[in-house]
């Protein structure tokens, strides 16, 4: 049997803010069979993750492209790999059977041909919706958990500021920190999102950064005695304002700098005297380096989910054709929570 495999690609490298017209859908015939002995499998993609880091993969150059395998540049015309969940439809690998659910690197397309050695494993949904594997129980959840607990090492009662707080990672950082016993303030890009953070997710405070004219003064208002931990998802002027408001021995964890990804002119220039004299620690990290906390993360998050202590924010679109707008929307703040595209029915 043969199917048509549609997949998303870029027409040329994109430096700057991506537009839907930069992407195209290609289609190719895919025979649903594998050669015996190759250990190849074919996966029907079900849910794929839509992540900001992909924008650095489509640039003509980004230092991130050589830092780690999964961030390698995407060649125009070829398929994107992305985190996601799928179902095995053909297996030439004794470790997988037809019908197995799998999670790991698949493609922004209908099907993925998975060669041996790829980052893919069998998936146990743990009696929770399968889409959770892409967000809260996937790399987004691990990133929030590892960045907060493995790097910042909060103490109960500490005061935490998180940016892009209604996004996939930010909302979880805030919820984990509240459950742990910290005071949490989030910044986000609309008044609707501010209300959600305070009323549904239990943040102590939240503000719309687009309505603020002096971010240093804004943070002084929310943290009159200073910030213990800043979980940075956006970089640039928000990072500068947070550093200016850190307490002595404060910690800044740089998870991402989305406001700088699409604007080569934008660069955080925090006051280095503050960093020296307030003995502030700034640390970047990649979730993939923190697999040592994976079991702890999974157990605690599943317990919170089953007990109803954590809210799941998902923003799900449908169909391969919706991937470009879903992706471009990340940089406009269209999403609330984890952006996922459902490719096919389970
Ligand atoms: N270190 C790691 O291992 C790792 C892993 C995954 C992701 N990340 C990083 O973590 C950050 C959050 O990723 P995510 O997957 O959770 O995405 P997300 O927050 O779900 O989506 C992106 C959000 O960023 C905000 N945003 C977009 N452009 C902005 C700008 N110019 N200034 C301020 N905010 C802007 C928007 O919300 P608003 O309404 O708030 O504007 C948007 O909804 C990104 O920087 C990403 O690269 C790091």
UniProtKB/TrEMBL annotation:
A Pfam family hit: ADH_zinc_N
- Keyword Cytoplasm belongs to the record: no
* SMART domains from the UniProt entry: PKS_ER (SM00829)
Q: Which N-terminal stretch is annotated as signal sequence?
A: none
Which Gene3D superfamilies is this protein grouped with?
A: Medium-chain alcohol dehydrogenases, catalytic domain, NAD(P)-binding Rossmann-like Domain
Keywords on record = Oxidoreductase
What InterPro entries has UniProt attached to this entry? Answer: ADH-like_C, ADH_N_2, ER, GroES-like_sf, MDR_fam, NAD(P)-bd_dom_sf
What is the designated name of this protein? Answer: Enoyl reductase (ER) domain-containing protein
What is the source species? Answer: Xanthoceras sorbifolium
Lineage of the species this protein comes from: Eukaryota, Viridiplantae, Streptophyta, Embryophyta, Tracheophyta
């Amino acid at each position: 049997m043969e199917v048509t495999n549609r997949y998303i690609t870029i027409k040329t490298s994109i430096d700057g803010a991506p537009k839907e017209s930069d992407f195209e859908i290609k289609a190719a015939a895919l025979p649903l069979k594998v050669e015996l002995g190759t250990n190849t499998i074919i996966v029907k993609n079900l849910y794929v993750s839509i992540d900001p880091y992909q924008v650095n993969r489509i640039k003509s150059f980004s230092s991130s492209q050589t830092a780690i395998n999964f961030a390698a540049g995407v060649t125009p015309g070829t398929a994107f790999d992305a985190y996601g969940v799928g179902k095995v439809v053909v297996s030439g690998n004794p470790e997988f059977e037809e019908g197995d659910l799998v999670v790991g690197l698949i493609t922004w397309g209908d099907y993925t041909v998975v060669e041996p050695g790829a980052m893919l494993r069998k998936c146990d949904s743990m009696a929770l919706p399968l889409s959770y594997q892409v967000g809260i129980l996937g790399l987004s959840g691990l990133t929030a958990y590892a960045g907060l607990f493995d790097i910042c090492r909060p103490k109960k009662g500490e005061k935490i500021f998180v940016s892009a707080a209604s996004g996939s990672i930010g909302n979880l950082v805030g919820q984990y920190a509240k459950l742990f016993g910290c005071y949490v303030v989030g910044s986000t890009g609309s008044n609707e999102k501010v209300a959600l953070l305070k009323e549904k997710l239990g943040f102590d405070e939240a503000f719309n950064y687009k309505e603020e004219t002096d971010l240093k003064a804004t943070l002084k208002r929310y943290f009159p005695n200073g910030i213990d931990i800043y979980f940075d998802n956006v970089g640039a002027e928000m990072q500068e304002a947070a550093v200016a408001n850190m307490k002595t021995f404060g910690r800044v964890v740089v998870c991402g700098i989305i406001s700088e990804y699409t604007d080569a002119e934008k660069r955080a220039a925090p006051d280095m005297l503050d960093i020296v004299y307030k003995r502030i620690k700034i640390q970047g990290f990649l979730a993939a380096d923190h697999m040592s906390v994976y079991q702890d993360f999974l157990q605690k998050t599943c317990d919170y989910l089953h007990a109803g202590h954590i809210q799941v924010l998902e923003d799900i679109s449908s169909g391969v054709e919706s991937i470009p707008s879903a992706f471009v929307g990340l940089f406009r703040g269209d999403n609330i929570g984890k952006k996922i595209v459902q490719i096919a029915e389970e």
